[in-house]
Write a structure and sequence with these properties.
Blueprint lengths: L3 E8 L2 E8 H71 L5 H5 L14 H5 L6 H10 L11 E4 L2 E4 L6 E4 L2 E4 L5 E3 L4 E7 L8 E6 L4 E11 L6 E2 L4 E5 L10 E7 L2 E3 L1 H5 L8 H5 L5 H16 L1 H8 L1
Antiparallel strand pairs: 1-2, 3-6, 4-5, 6-13, 7-12, 8-9, 8-11, 9-10, 10-12, 10-13, 13-14
Protein name: Peptidase
InterPro entries: Cell_wall_metabolism_enzyme (IPR050570), Dup_hybrid_motif (IPR011055), M23ase_b-sheet_dom (IPR016047)
GO molecular function: metalloendopeptidase activity
């Protein structure tokens, strides 16, 4: 009996005995032990896998954070590239000092320092025809028609991407895509491009007389070609949302001898308020400029020239 294992089962009907061989007993023990071992190792494996999954999720979160940081850095670098490109655009527009070329230096016309600018210009001698001629050549008024709102003024502002204060070289008009844009003065289409243009998007540059230039950025369509002569009030493009833009608008700039000017006094300049521009905009030597323009008007109005043109 020593190699036997007796199992007794008792119920209401009596007792029954079952003899199990000792080897069967060992086999059962081994099976039970195997199941316990499998369960134990499975439990350990699952815990290790769960821990590994948790570590993978942590690494994934870290990688996502790194990706967001890299993406933000790329946006900042792209904005810096756009900024440098805009600076290169400005550098490309550098021209020689026009006053030196046409002889409008300080030595030619020297006014007493105690006289006001308006007195030095001597507006009493400027006729209506001369005023109209000036406003035909120098940018004035709003380069669009109908209602609009100014969404960003000229001057320092916080760059929405770089989060630092930077100069804003123009005025932004908040208008729907497809709004017609008109030339504010006679000129030549110096630049027409449908590319990215350093964040400006589709852009037109007009070159006007006496060193003035106007820029129109974030357009949707251009209707003039490079080299085209345009007249004041002529359609040149349609507004849009191209380039680095946060919404549909027109970015409008005025430059004089490569210097950025505040467009506000120019868009408010009218025949009725003809003299205000001379006091508001101090970066232009109006006396020299208007004297030269008035001489051109006088030359154009001479009988000899008129008779020659009639022939």
């Amino acid at each position: 009996m020593k190699n036997r294992f007796v199992v007794t089962i008792t119920d209401v009907n009596g007792s029954k005995q079952y003899n199990i061989h000792q080897y069967m007993k060992q086999i059962m023990l081994y099976i039970i032990l195997l199941v316990v071992v499998i369960f134990f190792f499975s439990f350990i494996s699952i815990r290790l896998l769960l821990k590994e999954v948790e570590q993978i999720e942590i690494k994934r979160d870290l990688m996502q954070q790194e990706y967001l940081k890299i993406n933000e850095k790329n946006e900042q670098l792209r904005a810096l590239v756009d900024e440098k490109t805009e600076e290169l655009v400005k550098v490309s527009d550098r021209i020689e000092d026009l006053e030196g070329i046409v002889g409008l230096s300080d030595q030619i016309i020297e006014a007493p320092q105690d006289l006001s600018l308006i007195e030095r210009v001597d507006l009493a001698r400027i006729t209506g025809a001369q005023k109209a001629f000036v406003m035909q050549l120098i940018p004035n008024g709003v380069p669009l028609r109908g209602s609009y709102r100014i969404t960003s003024e000229w001057g320092a502002r916080v760059n929405p991407v770089l989060q630092r204060t930077q100069p804003h070289n123009g005025i932004d008009f908040g208008i729907p895509v497809g709004t017609p844009i008109y030339a504010p003065a006679d000129g030549v289409a110096d630049f027409t491009n449908n590319g990215y243009n350093g964040g400006y998007g589709i852009m037109v540059k007009l070159e006007h007389s006496f060193g003035f230039k106007t820029f129109y950025a974030h357009l949707s369509k251009i209707v003039v070609n490079k080299g085209d002569f345009v007249q004041r009030g002529q359609l040149i493009a349609y507004s849009g949302n191209s380039g680095r833009s946060t919404g549909p608008h027109l970015h409008y700039e005025i430059r004089y001898l490569s210097r950025d000017l505040n467009p506000r006094p120019f868009i408010e300049w009218t025949m009725r308020d003809y003299t205000q521009i001379f006091e508001k905009e101090k970066n232009i030597k109006w006396q020299s400029l208007l004297t030269m323009i008035n001489k051109l008007v006088e030359i154009q109005a001479t009988p000899a020239l008129s008779h020659k043109e009639q022939k």
